[in-house]
Design goal:
By secondary structure, the chain is α/β, with parallel strands linked by helices. The chain contains 18 helices and 17 strands. It has two domains: 302 residues, Rossmann fold; 165 residues, Isoleucyl-tRNA Synthetase, Domain 1, CATH 1.10.730. Strands 1, 2, 3, 4, 8, 13 and 14 form a seven-stranded parallel β-sheet that branches. The radius of gyration is 26 Å and the shape is elongated. The chain binds 5'-O-[(L-methionyl)-sulphamoyl]adenosine. 5'-O-[(L-methionyl)-sulphamoyl]adenosine (MSP) binds next to strand 2, helix 1, helix 7 and strand 13.
Amino acid sequence: MNKRFYITTAIDYVNGAPHLGHAYEKVIADVIARGQRALGHEAFFLTGLDEHGQKVQQAAQAEGKPTQAYVDELAAVWKTFAHTLQLSNNDFIRTTEPRHKQVVAALLTKLHAQGDIYKAEYRGWYSWRQETFLTHKDRNPDGSWDPIYGEVRELVEENWYFKMGQYQQWLLEHIEANPDFVYPDYRRNEVLGFLKKEPLADLCISRPRERLNWGIPMPFDPDYVNYVWFDALTNYITVPASQGDPAILAALPDLQSQISNPTSQISLWPADIHVIGKDILKFHAVYWPIMLHAGGLPLPRQIVVHGWWQKEGAKISKTTGNIVDPIAVINEWGLDAFRFYVLRELDIGPDGNWTDSGFAARYTAELANGLGNLVNRSLSMLHRYRQGVVPERSTELAGDAATAVDRVRRQLATCELQAAVQSVWTLVARANQYVDHTAPFKLAKDPAQAGRLDAVLYNLVETCRILAVLLWPFLPTTAGRIYEQLGCTGVPDQLALADWGGAQPGHTLGKPEPLFPRKEPSRP
Ligand code: MSP
């Protein structure tokens, strides 16, 4: 059984509507997944929802709804959102599903049986809003608690603990020996710094049911539910387990009997990439690897950490109204304009700043005047001067196209998505410059230049075809539309189609339609 490339996103808290940050992360992961498939690999892309925990329970209470009904309603909204973004996900996990609860229970049972989980009394200051115990280091200099913690009360309670501390040295060595484990490297250094600074405390992984009942029961103690982060992280192995993944079944053999269709087993684990935001790095680069290691499971190959978006230089916040509503942007400008802006504007790693004027400027310059104009004028000229029929082959732009294809291949494989988009646009710019230099409208006026005009038109039409192939992972609708306008059948979803010469002489093109109509942004 061949192992497939397996990529995941963070699973979003289902306590509100999706925003720019959620959309950005899902688009990045989608591009990487589509990129792998375009490179000829089978890829499995998972996204989904984190539905347990206090935040979700409180949000449901605030709306006066039973929690399950509340999450069911929102899950439908989020699934539609994934569809709107044209995510090519192969599954969508919800942590309230029975398949997930089984895997969490199996992992907890194993860790408990081997003595990695113990019960102890804890006394501490508890933040109800953040669902976590605080330490004195979290206090303001005057001894008060920051309002971000909400109500803070002293609490004494028994809970279940996971012996994480004993794995600290092992994890440090793993991260040092695997420089690619956390990407980019400055995030890796953050994790190493954290691990070297102080001893890792054992992790409290339960909540008493009397305080929080919206969670997965601890299989060996019905008075407690599982801590939401332990539950949420486990989602990454739930779906492979439900697909009969051999690496997971070897470590958690009790799950064998729960697989729905044992004949269609696929191998996914270990994950190749977990895509996450910088705020949840510690959970993914410290807690999760330790949970897996203790459970006898191999570790993911890489954790890819993206930065956070601001809008117009300020924090995105519902309370101040400083938000970007991705659905409104998509309705106004089209999905591919949204995908293009976030991918082109922000590299994976640093923080980004969304500006409405920057969005409109990129739309006009790079989409409408750059790509859109190139495709439209190339196809229109072929119709005007050659009745839409592809002339004899010529190779003048073949070298430029090959350079772009090589770069995009490499950059897709290394998650350098912003650079990959730039590589595609270098070819767009080169082809637009070629139109300006060769001036086909002048050549058309001189019958002696008919052969030269054929050559120019072939180079343009073939470059447009290759651009469709290169664009597929990033802007799938646009790639499909270019292909359709060229009269090509199928979808340009394989980079192998980007070899020069694919446009067949004698083939008749379809009708050109503007890809990105020029427009003014609507004013409020
Ligand atoms: N439920 C947890 C993740 C569990 S993963 C096992 C969670 N959910 S979240 O809804 O708060 O965030 C989901 C993802 O969106 C995170 O990776 C987070 O970094 C990302 N973003 C949330 N706001 C963001 C921005 N403003 N900008 C970019 N990404 C942001 O955390």
